[in-house]
Amino acid sequence: MNTPPLPEAKDRPARLAVGVVGAGRVGPALAAALRLAGHRPVAVSGVSDASVRRAAALLPEVPLVSPAQVLARSELVLLTVPDDALPRLVQGLAETGAVRPGQLLVHTSGRYGTAVLDPARSAGALPLALHPAMTFTGTAVDVQRLAGCSFGVTAPEELRLAAEALVIEMGGEPEWIEESARPLYHAALALGANHLVTLVAQSLELLRAAGVGAPDRMLGPLLGAALDNALRSGDAALTGPVARGDAGTVAAHVAELREHAPQTVAGYLAMARATADRAMASGLLKPELAEDLLGVLADGGTR
Q1: Could you please report the per-residue DSSP string of 170-228?
Q2: How far apart are CA 79 and CA 23, in angstroms?
Q3: pLDDT tens-digit profile of 71-125?
């Protein structure tokens, strides 16, 4: 792992008073990581009981206040709210005069770059987009997982060194993402991580239905090896009946799924078609075997 060198002292942010708006799973963990680097969490906002518990666990003795009070007390503000809520939050903070000139305003949305912070930037804020490419649990383990975690970083050129320094101080590795590429970047991460959870959960359910007593123990080594092979070799790691062109096996799979778990059929067929396309493009799936397989998939496995 090639960790970037720490910036020189002149490029590193001073010790900052840190506030968190939105005590979901991400914000308290990032603030806790910044505290380990010497920054001072001073305020956090949260509404739900779960948010209050997370803030108390990860940021003990940090007062729970309103978003406006968080900004009033902080030099660095982490806006860690859901993507769809972010534009409205920024607009509201700017319109009510909560934003101060020179205040670092950081959001953690993967979807957005810094343009979403333009209302606050007009009020003098310094905008940064720092998105950790990590799934969060809302517990202390998240702080440990930040070590070596890549962050998608977008910032004005004059703030680039400060943005990268903050990521490094949290234990992460900065990866520069252009403003226009943020939606594609985020879609790529969601495709890999979010859909993986769905696929694994479905696989666990099906194994239980098949009588497997410890499906997690069965899947763990298999999925670990598949992920490692995919990261190392890409499409060359494709295996299984689709990549081999075993049309009869795929048809049998679909028939079983229709009987025992019909809600999984559409996903199985969609992923099988995508796998077949990649296997053909990489030369793993021979044309003479692909014809029957594609026919099965086109018929929804009813052949």
Answers
A1: TT-EEEE--GGGHHHHHHHHIIIIIHHHHHHHHHHHHHHHTT-S-HHHHHHHHHHHHHH
A2: 9
A3: 999 999 999 999 999 999 999 999 999 999 999 999 999 999 999 999 999 999 9
- The three-class DSSP label of residue 78 is strand
- DSSP state for residue 13 in the 8-state scheme: P
How far apart (Å, rounded) are the C-alpha atoms in residues 30 and 35? Answer: 9
**Measured between alpha carbons, how far is 99 from 291 in angstroms, rounded to an integer?**
61
Per-residue model confidence (pLDDT) at position 303? 54
Spatial distance between the Cα atoms of 31 and 45, rounded to a whole number of angstroms: 12
Q: How many residues does the chain have?
A: 303
- CATH code of the domain made up of 9-177: 3.40.50.720
> What's the average model confidence in pLDDT over 154-178?
97
State the pTM of this model: 0.87
CA distance 2 to 5: 9
CA dihedral angle for residue 50, residue 54, residue 57, residue 63, rounded to 10 degrees? -100
Coil vs helix vs strand at 281 = helix
Determine the Cα–Cα distance for residues 104 and 9; give it in Å rounded to an integer.
18
Whole-number Å distance between alpha carbons of 36 and 143: 10
